[in-house]
Design goal:
By secondary structure, the protein is mainly β. Among the domains are: 75 residues, Beta-lactamase Inhibitory Protein, Chain:B, domain 1 (2-Layer Sandwich), CATH 3.30.1450; 90 residues, Immunoglobulin-like (Sandwich), CATH 2.60.40.10. 13% of the residues lie in helices and 34% in strands.
């Protein structure tokens, strides 16, 4: 079988005559086709992103607001089926003379669906080419990763082919090793080398080569002496812990500010962390400089590690400003105050707070925003337990909550009970296979917020 071309930078006419001609029954999205016209590709990408066609519910969606131009469009052949289209997009923070095949990228299917890439990666600071000769383009890039054992660098090689599974992942303690491509002969496929640069000269300690016979990358699994571990897929915490110990590294203590009486407008925390002032927080917006963020919010809890990540890798880093919730089995990753900083411009890319996307904090305590149950939920289980959860509410003092749980007893007749809790969850027992509804409000001393909207539900048994 003839091997597909790895990368085709083609014109609109070539796409329609060759790539599509092989599969006449498959219809290409017209905006995807327009990406190959230099005159139309900026508007075509804007229309694709406005359509917001994604599989399932990705954790990251392109808003398109920061994109200023299309730098390059790459047609990525597949071992079977139609090619994928990778768009490298420029933004207002990026220099005009930056390499076209670098930085922010978006992978799009022929039908216009925007595909979430491996582990949410949206930027390339490495290489974009076919490394093993199979005709499929590969993404090769390194970025920082924070484990409880310390900071690590991870090198990831991922084929541009669904489902975007890594073919090679190697981790090492940050600043201990470096990597490079090695190709002594142009007739050979490149290899990937890890090495030290202590003397200013790259000295290899490991090498990974593609094996056509085994259809995989071959090389050492780990070396505690050299300080690296291969862990294709998710990092193995035990292996990372051994590497951290071998490198003489210990986990950095989390910087927790001393609790003190908050001024008006400062949201209170149950985790002994002083959270950002709400007025100052609302003044942070896209494009705000990094220095202004520090001046208004103070240093983040992960300040040192975030700076190291930006200095070494560029890209983006997340500034953590704490959560009003403690980590628990019901909140394994509690919502928190986060600011995403873009390394190329040292400005704010986006931010997130723990109070929910639609909450109004103009009056405190704020109305809590419900997460569960979903609106008009229909339950089939028995016993009739209901998991009720909501985002924490902003308040000046120590906030608690009241949950009103109602059951329909007859036409227009509801029986309600109000339950008090200091947590952001409640487990209710519904009294029958009748319609029910639940709402919640926050309490701060003698102040009460308005009730949240009702969430209606029913049981069929």
């Amino acid at each position: 079988m003839k091997r597909p071309l790895a990368i085709l930078a083609i014109s609109f006419s070539l796409v329609t005559s060759s790539a599509i001609g092989e599969e006449q029954d498959v219809v290409w999205n017209q905006d995807v086709l327009r990406l190959f016209s230099i005159e139309e590709r900026d508007e075509a990408l804007r229309q694709i992103l406005l359509a917001a066609n994604y599989p399932d519910q990705p954790r990251y969606k392109e808003d398109g607001e920061h994109i200023t131009r299309v730098k390059e469009v790459v047609l990525c052949a597949q071992l079977s089926g139609l090619p994928l289209v990778t768009v490298f997009a420029g933004n207002k923070w990026e220099p005009e003379d930056v390499a076209p095949r670098s930085g922010h990228f978006i992978v799009i299917r022929s039908d216009g669906m925007v595909l979430p890439f491996y582990k949410g990666a949206i930027s390339l600071h490495g290489h974009f080419r076919d490394f093993n000769g199979d005709g499929v383009v590969d993404y090769l890039s390194a970025w920082g990763w924070k484990a409880k054992e310390g900071m690590f660098t991870g090198l990831h090689l991922v084929p541009i082919a669904e489902p975007f599974e890594a073919a090679l992942v190697v981790y090492w303690p940050q600043d201990q090793l470096d990597w490079k491509l090695h190709r002594p002969d142009l007739r050979c496929l490149p290899t990937i080398q890890l090495g030290t640069t202590d003397s200013g000269e790259f000295k290899p300690v490991a090498e990974y080569k593609w094996s056509k016979e085994d259809n995989q990358w071959q090389g050492p699994q780990r070396s505690l002496e050299a300080g690296f571990v291969r862990c294709d897929g998710d990092p193995n915490e035990l292996a990372l812990g051994l590497l951290a110990n071998q490198a003489g590294r210990t986990p950095e203590p989390v910087a927790v500010q001393e609790a003190q009486a908050p001024p008006v407008g400062l949201s209170q925390s149950t985790t002994d962390q002083q959270l950002p002032n709400l007025v100052a927080w609302q003044m942070i917006e896209r494009g705000t400089s990094y220095d202004t963020v520090l001046a208004r919010l103070g240093e983040p809890l992960n300040h040192e590690s975030a700076i190291r990540e930006l200095e070494q890798f560029g890209g983006t880093a997340v500034l953590e400003y704490g959560s009003p919730l403690k980590q628990s089995p019901l909140w394994p990753n509690p919502p928190s105050f986060k600011v995403w900083i873009r390394g190329s411009s040292m400005t704010v890319l986006s931010k997130e707070w723990p109070y929910g996307p639609n909450v109004d904090v103009s009056e405190l305590p704020a109305v809590p925003e419900l997460i569960l149950p979903s609106a008009e939920a229909h339950f089939h289980h028995y016993p009739r337990y209901i998991d009720v959860r909501w985002f924490p509410a902003a308040a000046e003092g120590n906030v608690s909550y009241e949950v009103e749980h109602a059951i329909l007893m007859g036409i227009g007749k509801w029986r309600s009970d109000v339950h008090k809790t200091a947590e952001c969850y409640y487990v209710a027992m519904h009294g029958g296979a009748n319609k029910g509804r639940i709402r919640v409000r926050s309490v701060d001393g003698d102040k009460r917020s308005q009730w949240s909207e009702w969430r209606n539900f029913d049981f069929d048994r």
